Amino acid sequence: MLKLHDRIVFGGPHKSEYQKNTWNDIKKVASKDGKTFIELYQKNLHRYIPRAGEWSLPWPHEIPEEYKMPEYEPTFKKSYDNICNNRAAEIAKLIRDNDYKFAVMWSGGIDSTVILTALIKNLSKNELKNIAVCANASSLIENPTFFKKFICNNFEILDSSICRYDQLIEKNYYIITGELGDQIEGPNQPYIDTQQNYYYYIKNLSSTSKSYLISIKDKMYDSHYQEYKDLIIERFGEEYYLRVEKNIKTANVPIFSYYDYQWWFHFNLRWTTSVFRAPAQYNNQTHCKKILDRLIFWYNATDYQKWSMVNRSKETEFRQTSKKYIHELDKNDWYFYFKTKMDSGGHLKTYYDYSHLAPEQHPNAMFGMDQNYNRLYIGSPDVQEYIRHYVSTYNCDR
Amino acid sequence: MDEIAQIKKSLNEDPAELKNYYPSTENKKNKYVLFSPKISRFILTEKYNPFILFETAQILSSKLSTIVYIISDKNNAPTINNESCLFFSIQHTVHPQDPANINFVRQIARMIVLNTNLYKPGYPADFLEASKKTLLSKLQEYAMFCLRCMHAINWSINTNDPYVEKDQHEKYYLENFFHQPQVKQFSDKILNQSTLLSTIKNILYECESIEEALPKIIDAWKPHIKQDRTNRLKVFFDILGTTTPKELYGFILPLEKQTLGEV
After folding, report:
1. Do A215 and A242 have their domain in common?
2. Are A132 and A280 in the same domain?
3. Residue A356 is assigned to a structural domain of this protein
4. Does the beta-carbon distance from B93 to A197 stay under 8 Å?
5. Residue A8 to residue A5: CA distance in whole angstroms
């Protein structure tokens, strides 16, 4: 039962077919400033919860302790390799002390391959026996060389297309996921998308703006993000630009380039969305707390985050740091030089079968998650009341 | 190996043998091109057969993501070849939700009509250093070799006596024209076995250079040439750009010992 003083750790209504009545309701009850809320809603901005800086939301919200952003430390010196190796050492200790079994979610992409690389580099043969690799045909196709050389015949392989988190937990696994890798080392999806579809996004701008943006097309790493203002507004809307800018100015982490700007949005505002979306959605209604207790976000480590805050070099722009770490093990030049960073969330989703769920419990009917990790569904009267209350009193102060 | 040197030498010209299979292509432009999103350049061009280039893209997907673009006549694109294509890129202007958006490209190859313009940003800046230039040349050389191999194996198998590659053809028919449960009793053996085509594709998918792949391809032929009464070997190696390796001669069953069907 959601009470008005409860806080949200993840969510907000969204634009699925399951929630269209809520949208109609929001339009009716939005206060004078509701126009701004509607803009937020249309751009999905009301679903992001800030870890730092100002970012106004209609409802009370919180970041659980373990997902808070560490202090910015400009003199942070640990290397990426060191951090990966230390992370693997933590897993090794859990195996030695408790004989825990781990299932590594391996999509074949860069983030999850870093995890396996770290484990292979740092764990003993005996310790590696406690590691299973959860993959599917897509993983194999994504990185066949790594699969053949390091996974096949060396690890127990579980089929990720039929194993949900709750099923892995039932089999007594701790699950290691590469979620949040995008937030640690860029580029993230919107950055790649902007880079690759640059001409599409600027095509309707004025000729002056267009020719200026063409002249700085290949400087997204070097030029100040404000230089790309027209592009950002065209791509994401003015509300987005102004909000993110305010958030940047009120946080204590220096943001300079367009690359920084996109990194910050993900590192700050999309951190908890990435943490909670899988436990919220990809399971069989097991309580989220039970899943989160068994879920290890490899990149949710203080050192990775501190590293990320001071290492946005040209090298990280294309995941070269992670790829270098993998390359030391697999010596695969092709992967190192020609592997493209791609989004894997979307294609994993297609494997989950929700047909056993009642429509009101479908992931798309979810409002979010409260501070006790209860799933909240849009059809519940208490959730409806909560939304109505906060949207009608929301006074957006950008 | 002499054959490797011969093949490398021939890669920049179309083999005369191949032209026989694609009449009226003498002055045709390279309208099918392989694009690498990672380096944002084209790495391979083809004028004969888009589907052979597509199969090549699938083979290369073990190493890099690619898209086969078909340059339509509307594009008014400059003529590019395997040498100049590394200097060209595309002004991507499709809607981001369009399947042609290169953001959606993972390792599975795709083929799309190009609906945007080519432009010439020059040789990829990240590969100007000598060692990286060599790497890119090797990639391109291997890509050209794979394309040749796919032409060679397809023509070699499909233009010759179907009984010679009976398993290959039967496997294709069972996979494509029959619902598996209906024919399970006699399909298992055929569907599970490696054919010459699948073996060669697998070699190309796993190998990284001509030097590594060619000896394996030659070995792969050995169990398949016992009744080579139809010149398959010659077709294959001619298109590949070399003479039939001498080490395969000994595996050819003399004509008088060959029978129709099984030996």
Report:
1. yes
2. yes
3. no
4. yes
5. 10
Domain boundary among the residues A230, A252, A267 is at: A267
Residue A26 lies in a domain: yes
**Residue of chain B minimizing CA distance to A346:** B104
* pTM (two decimals): 0.90
Interface confidence, given as ipTM, is: 0.85
Centre a 10 Å sphere on the Cβ of residue A180 and count the other Cβ atoms it contains: 24
Verify that A117 and A196 share a domain, yes or no: no
Judging contacts by C-beta atoms under 8 Å, the chain B residues touching residue A138 are: 106
**Residue B213 with chain A: CB contacts under 8 Å:** none
B103–A189 C-beta distance less than 8 A:
yes
Do A386 and A256 reside in the same domain of the chain? no
Which of A193, A338, A347 is closest, CB to CB, to B103?
A193
Domain that holds residue A25: 8-69+370-393
Task: Report if residue A312 sits inside a domain.
Answer: yes
Same domain, A308 and A178: yes
B207 CA: distance to closest CA in chain A (Å): 10
Size of interface A-B (CB pairs under 8 A): 73
Q: Check whether residue A91 and residue A176 sit in a common domain.
A: yes
b/e A217-246 (16+ beta carbons within 10 angstroms → b) = eeebbebebebbbbbbebbbbebbbebbbb
- Whether residues A200 and B106 touch (CB distance < 8 A) is answered with no
Per-residue pLDDT tens over the stretch A355-368 = 778 888 888 888 99
User: Chain A within 8 Å of B25 (Cβ-Cβ)?
Assistant: no
On whether any CB of chain A is under 8 Å from the CB of B95, the answer is yes
Chain A CB contacts of B139 under 8 Å are 334, 338
How many structural domains compose chain A? 3
Is residue A253 left, alpha or beta, with left meaning phi > 0 and alpha meaning psi from -120 to 50? beta
CB-based contact, B132 to chain A, within 8 Å: yes
- The verdict on residue A358 lying in a domain is no
In Å, how far from its chain's centre is CA B111?
A: 14
Tokens of B232: 């398959």
- The tens-digit pLDDT sequence of chain B (263 residues) is 788 999 999 998 888 888 889 988 888 889 999 999 888 899 999 999 999 999 999 999 999 888 899 998 877 788 899 999 999 998 776 666 666 566 666 788 889 888 788 889 999 998 999 999 999 999 999 999 999 999 999 999 888 777 777 888 888 888 888 776 666 666 667 777 788 999 999 999 999 999 999 999 999 998 888 766 668 888 999 999 999 998 888 877 666 666 554 43
Asked if A289 and A198 sit in the same domain, the reply is: no
| Euclidean distance between CA atoms A360 and A379, whole angstroms | 6
CB contact under 8 A, A340 and B63: no
Would you give the end-to-end CA distance of chain B in angstroms? 31
Residues A24 and A142 in one domain: no
Residue among B57, B41, B215, B243 nearest B147 (CA):
B57
Cβ of B37 within 8 Å of Cβ of A200? The answer is no
Q: Which of A140, A219, A340 to mutate to test the interface with B (most CBs of B within 10 A)?
A: A340
A216 touches chain B (CB under 8 A): no
Is the Cβ pair A199, B92 closer than 8 Å? yes
Question: Among B65, B94, B106, which would you mutate to test the A interface (most chain A Cβ atoms within 10 Å of its Cβ)?
Answer: B106
For the beta carbon of residue A101, count every other beta carbon within 10 angstroms. 17
Sort out which chain B residues have CB atoms less than 8 A from A108's CB and list them: 107
User: Which pair of structure tokens corresponds to residue B228?
Assistant: 């080579």
CA distance A369 to chain B (A): 29
Residue A339, CB half-sphere, CA atoms under 13 Å: how many? 29
Tens of pLDDT, residue by residue over A201-249, are 999 999 999 999 999 998 888 899 999 999 999 988 888 899 999 999 9
